[in-house]
Amino acid sequence: MGNPIFDYLEDIGAMAVKMDGFDDAVMGYTEDGESFRLIYSHRGLVKVLEKDMSEEDALEYIDFNVIRGVAYMPNMNGLPAPIIMYEVDAPPKLLMDIFREMDEQDAEDD
Question: pTM score, two decimals?
Answer without folding.
Answer: 0.73
